[in-house]
Structures are given as structure tokens and as C-alpha cells.
Amino acid sequence: MSLLAVDNLLGSSSLVERMPGLTAWLKDLVFPPTCGGCGRVDYQFCAVCAEKLALLPVEYREHHVETVDAVFATGRHAGILADAIRAFKYAGAPQLAEPLAARLDALLTRQLLSVDVLVPVPLSGQRLVERGYNQSELLAKRLSEARGISCNPSLLRRVRHTEKQAQLSGVERNQNVEGAFAADGAHGLSVLLIDDVVTTGSTLRECASALRNKGATAVYAIAVSASG
Ligand SMILES: [Zn+2]
Q1: How far does residue 56's CA lie from ligand 1's centre (Å)?
Q2: On the CB side of 210, how many CA atoms lie within 13 Å of its CA?
Q3: Which of 218, 164, 160 is nearest to 193 (CA)?
Q4: CA of 139 to the centre of ligand 1 (A)
């Protein structure tokens, strides 16, 4: 029986609509996923690369970003760490939240911060629709469970869509995110911002400004990797 025939039997709504998993299955069959680390046709991130990531030591890097009290990252944005983050963000591998958040947790075990709440850097609504999930929110939720600190994504929101920072120069990045965030209900709170990659820090700076404007007493940030 053809798909069309099955579709007709089911009535007016299409088979694809009734079975969203079918679309993904057909897509995988026609375009098999390749590993974001080594490129082999297998899975978005293969077991060999996952093992490499697990063995990568957690570094303790501190960066200076204006208006943020301290910014930490668990390693340089290169090699297997950069590959994992790319697969996590762009190749539909949300399961990488677990090993990547474990790195954040390990760093925080060394750097004890007194924070009241974890706040992921928000995605624009448009990007959320494209990706299906906010990678920073997945990290924040994992970290929240691991450390017993509450996570409140609604404290901060994007008030306008911005271009992808990765494609812009330093000055353009600043202009791109200026005034792009607004905060609510941050009065008296010490906040830890969660992001995947810190580059120039312009996104974190804007987030911190928005939170401070609404009364946050301290704003720290932690990212999986740092470039530059
Ligand atoms: Zn691989």
C-alpha cells in the first residue's frame, strides 16, 4: 500500500501530520546524520567523539566582560569542544546538554559562587522555532538539577530579533545586541547567566545590563567554551 493510500484511509489530515516522527525517519534515511566531531555517517555525535569529549579536562578560564562580575568558561572554543557545541546547537543533538552541563558543574565545584538563580541567555522566538530548543536553557536546566539552584528562564527575554553573532565583527556584535534584552523581577537577586560560547562578551554584557536595570545585585556568567 502506498503512503498516499494510507493517507487517504486516515482521512483529511496528512500522514506526516499524524506521525511527525515519520518525517524525521524518512529524512534520516535519505540524508543519514553524520557525526559533528569526526564526520562519519552514524549519529549527530558518535560514541568515539563522546568519549573524547568526556576525557577532555575541564579548564578554569576567567574572562573580563564589562558589567558582568565574573565570566567563566570550561575550555577554549576549539577541537572536540567546539565540534560538540556545534552539533548541540546546529545538528539537532540536544542530548549533548548532559556532558556539556557536566563541565559547567565541574567548574562551579571549583569556583563556588553565591547565586540565587540560573538564567539562560534567551534565543529570539524566530531562532527558537528554527532550532526547536534553546541550547542555553537545556544547559541551565541540567545545571539547576545538578546544583540545586533554581532556574528561571523568564527573568530575561529578547525584545527584538538579532543577527547571528558568529557572522559579525566585534563592533557589529556590540551594535547587533544593544538593547536586545529586557529583564523582569530581578530585584535583589544574584544571577548566574548560562551560555554555550562566550566570544566578545557583548551578549552577556547586554544581558547583565538588563538584569542590573531591574535591580539584580550581582551578575555572573558561565559558558562551556570561550573563543578569542
Ligand atoms: Zn565522531
Answers
A1: 15
A2: 25
A3: 218
A4: 21
Cα gap 105→192, rounded to integer Å: 12
Is residue 158 classed as helix, strand or coil in its secondary structure?
Answer: strand
Distance from the CA of 198 to the center of ligand 1, in angstroms? 24
| Domains and their CATH numbers in the chain | 57-226 (3.40.50.2020)
| 18 has pLDDT over 70 | no
Separation CA 45–CA 84 (nearest Å): 7
Per-residue cell: 140: 541551565
In sequence order, the β-bridge partners of residue 223 are: 73, 195
CA distances from 167 to 14, 53, 183 (A): 38, 26, 26
Neighbouring CB atoms inside 10 A of 228's CB total 10
This model's pTM is above 0.90? no
User: Do 204 and 66 touch, CB atoms closer than 8 A?
Assistant: no
**Model pLDDT for residues 79-117, shown as the tens digit of each residue:** 999 999 999 998 888 999 999 999 999 999 998 889 999
Query: What pLDDT does 9 receive?
Result: 46
Distance from Cα 44 to the centre of ligand 1, integer Å: 8
